[in-house]
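Running this now, will post back.
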Amino acid sequence: METTAPTPSGTEPWEGWAGHHATARALVEQLTLAEAVSLVSAPMGIGPDAPADAVGSAAHTPGVERLGIPGWDESDASLGVTNPMGARGPDDDATAFPSGPALAATFDPDLARQVGEAVGAEAHAHGVAVQLAGGMNLVRDPRGGRVFEYLSEDVLLSGVLAGASVAGIQSRGVAATLKHFALNPSETGRVVVSSDLSEPALRESDLLAFQIAHERGRPRAVMPGYNLVNGVYASESHHLLTQVLKGDWGFGGFVMSDWGATHSTVHAAVAGLDRQSGHGLDTRHFFGADLLAAVESGRVPRERLDDMVTRILTALASVGALGERRRPRALDLAPHAALAARVAAGSVVLLRNTDHVLPLAGTGRLLVVGAHADTGVISGGGSSTVTPPGTVTDGGSQIAQMELPRAFHAPAPLDALRERWDGEVSWLDGADVPAAVAAAGSADTVVVVAEKWSTEGQDSPDLSLGDGQDELITALAAANDRLVVVLTVPSAVTMPWLDDVAAVLVAWYGGQAGAGAIADVLTGVAPPAGRLPITFPRSESQLPRPDVLDPAGLASNPGEPRRGGYPRVSYDVEGADVGYRWFERERLDPLFPFGAGLSTTTVEWSQVSVAVEDGAPVATLTLTNTGTRAGVETPQVYVAPPALPDRSATRRLAGWARVALEPGESRTVSIRCDEPRVLSAYDADDPGWTRAAGRYAVRVARDAAARPVLEAEVELPRLRLAP
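Update: finished.
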């Protein structure tokens, strides 16, 4: 199998857009003022105040029966269809897909599309019309509490995969939601903090990722974050919502607030917010009676209200949700379970493999150590947590009116390893360190399943594993030189024990198939195929902001009293140079660079060349698997623009290919770097993109910091693009 980053779909409108828009306009013309207002806010679809007709999800909007507008439901989130607080009972089933960084680690847009299709099909089967999926904020800080919901630190990788996911969801008749728009990289103080960044840098980083996803996926909905951007709430930013999103990009869908993130009536509506979500979490029902009065008094033009409703109904019509009221129905999830397994296995990243200890032979005395290795694979907390039957919860936290359980997806890694192991397999939780060390000394191989929980509503204070796990691994490594560490983590972590262990796998949050993926890669059933979508720093001191905000004095969640003022965080420190670009610019040596990942086979690169075709760099190379095992190779093309005043000339990922190779197999691939804005500068004074004429340094490599297989220069002409 070979996958490459696809070219954009262009600027064609959504399929049948004109007809859907006409349908919506005809309905809007028949609505009374009160009926129109009733369609632009939604209560939560769970809890004592949920509408009787709700299916038990994040929101339900009653329709207008006399016009044949059915009520519709909306569900979280990007990782699958959630069952918030068990509203639909313990037997409600949905596929728990791997985390966002796990999906990004596959570098596979086709797989992202398939996951989107599966999530969309399951949402539709649950009676849902809008899936709150499309989480894609750039990972500016790996300590961010919701990083596990997002994708990567790279503009192009995030935009391509998010666009593919959105397109997949909507192909199954469910509207998707890009979020959180924009510059929403942390959770500490998330309802009061302002993310500050200059316009050019914002356009060249976070906004460009969203723009690419918008062009490729054509989302029907966009959700601003809780945060402020440059001192203005994202949900009230006329610049973001009306000028950029609806103006420059021509977004035709609707903008919904996050739950509890609406702060006004007139200002929000005029700024471009189309729908108040979960209004019970806000201080007022701003888009209820207040909006009706504002329209009657002329403070909000009726034309603006009609536009809000038209956008919502057009989006619903485009996914077939204006017909008969959707009801839950049965769906065969077996194909989706198999897909989740492919994603989980394809996402595992091998970072260390001393003396080729992996794959394990599957014989001898195996000791598995890990607090929950006998329970399941850890999942991130919050509104995106998918809890199919068999999920075990152990602690967690709570925000507003929602519990955020710490969930573990069955089966357990211990059970999956026992199924694939011919010898003795024992387990210890590691709480008694001396006992674990003694057991490790008599085992042939030790596998430590380390975990780190991350959740919506709070950031991690540091990059350590925590809970004494780093110290445990150090002690076990001293007792057994065949120690394999499996990291079930949300993003980057530090590894003070790295030089003392035999092997390290990053298995992310693998969802319901995570245990099988871990066991398959450890025993050689599947190759380690993932590559890091996030740079792993050596320590927090290498990050643009080594210190984090103190959460103690800040309100972080909707429904809480505001406290701690409105702190401002400057992202101009790194500007558009997020992740690996920051490390290059500052000449920092990370623990593991973006794009890194080892294989258990050997792949030779040959006939590597770079040319310019139709104004874009194109890298061509031949890959040959010279080993005895199947493997996946992911060649990456990085391009640095010529130096310009006040503009970074750091290398940017401009293209890649994901190539699966059987032993002895050869494939020739061409990687076309056809997203010119990645190499361009944004001019805020004369709005638009300019790719300067000149010589561009092209590097074909295995990761962002590796010694290149080929380094060359190409001459590119000047190119001017609209905002």
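The domain at 15-79+91-318 is CATH 3.20.20.300 (TIM Barrel). More later if anyone needs it.
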